[in-house]
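Because discrete structure vocabularies remain unfamiliar, we first show an illustrative case, written as a sequence plus integers encoding its fold.
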Amino acid sequence: MKNRKILIADDDLNIIASLKYMLSEENFDILAMTTPEAVLENLKRESFDLVLLDMNFQQDTTSGVEGLKLVEAIQQVDDQLPIIVMTGWATIDIAVDAMRAGAKDFIQKPWNNERLITAINTQIKIAKIDKKLQRLSQENKLLSAQSFPQESGIIAQSPVMKTLLSSLNELAKSDMSILLTGDNGTGKSMLASYVHQHSSRANNSFVPVNMGAIPESLFESEMFGHLKGAFTDAKENRIGRFEMAEQGTLFLDELANIPMAQQAKLLRVLEEQKFEVVGSSKSQHADVRIISATNSDLPKAITEQQFRQDLFYRLNTIQLRVPSLKERVEDIAPLAEHFLQLYSVKYNISAPQLSIEAINKLQQYPWPGNIRELSHLMEKILFTCKKATITGRDLLLDEGLGAQSSSGKLINAATIDDASLSMEDIEKFSLINRLKHYRGNATETAKSLGLSRSAFYRRLSKYGLD
């Protein structure tokens, strides 16, 4: 565990020497300043766990006014940094004023060593808890907005999946970066979470980020956080994804969708393990394990100068391909039964059984949408099949199946000219079929439709296809 860092502010060199000696014995790193200006300058450049400051900086001043102004100024720089004030002219009024200004505790000179150390340890601990609670609150908001399925459990009866899980179990013991490739809907996000859960970082956060859904203008704010007032809409401090994932795992999904201009910023963080919150010049350490995923051909994107080669090598310590569902025939039936049971509990509906005919049909279907498509099908079947046993006919698994209209009609190539279809029905059908054509590759699909990344993802979200 790294030493905790304290900034001491006092104009008395003897006091500074005494505090340095005592606190160094307690494994604190100490930096001391003798003027308010020097204190503020260092706070803008470096991170500290606590500030211990005198209330007076001139020999003939005992009012505490200087100290109060400095407490307020520190709050402007970092309102989460704990402050303990000290003075040899202790009065209740000064103590109350200091606490109102933002100080967390008040120590009178000459101090009691044990009391001072306890106060410092307590305030540092409280600050860490507060920061963790804030991080968890923002992380919960983030996770609640995620659109990918959150079903737990990985089914692996097929040889190809058993081999993949065996590799992931070994890699989980390390801290190396992992790049997962494969078609959309194959469960890359779940496998990334699986690695995290089986790693030494399991007690800390797993933070997934859909890189394709982050507007380029908000990239730094989303990834590194921002301070209140850093830009027009920054009405409060925001913790970025790197800080959320501190000592945990950051999962970068849709990796190929990171704009070139932002790839350099991400590369710098990965190389130096440091980043700056937007609006701050202080560097923060990034102790984060990176797992990333893509369904794109990154070597091709590098050749076309759409992806940085140095970033690719930084993320590609080891690369594993996640097989498509049609390559894991042995897993299709147990996965379908798993989803039926899962949605049965969710909706409090009795789950029907799959017939042999239905299982055979599921195993013969090509599954262009992979596991996500199977999950959605089982959820729909739970409501459309009113029998105890699901037959092959109940599945409606025609390869030419397109989409369901808002009125419940089936839309495919044969019915697309139906005059009762709305523009939204036709657009949804077109999105589904174009996605199938490009095997779930979001970048290629968006490009073929002449849509920007953000416009494409908005449409996916609108129709529940994301």
